Request: fold
Amino acid sequence: MTAWDKILRYDPEVLVIAPCGFHVSRAAEELQLLERKPGWSQLQAVRNNAVYLVDFDLFTQPSPSTLTDGIELLAALFHPDIIPVPARLEYKYLSVTAGSLEHA
Reply:
């Protein structure tokens, strides 16, 4: 887990949130905890609609194919203009856009 003050200092361009043990639907239930943090709305990723909730298993499962899927999804989220999200992974993430959640 990264301390909130570090996130504020880093001011990320893209923010990928994948809480351990949480699929996107469960992470979405807890999103308001982050949205209430001081400085949330000033983060570059929030202002640019580049915040994503992602299934935890893409980054924690020992299967090579699962880890590869996670890397592919990260590439697409970091570079949406050149790398599309693979259709098989569309259900594994949600885009946080101006306080709403949607599959991009």
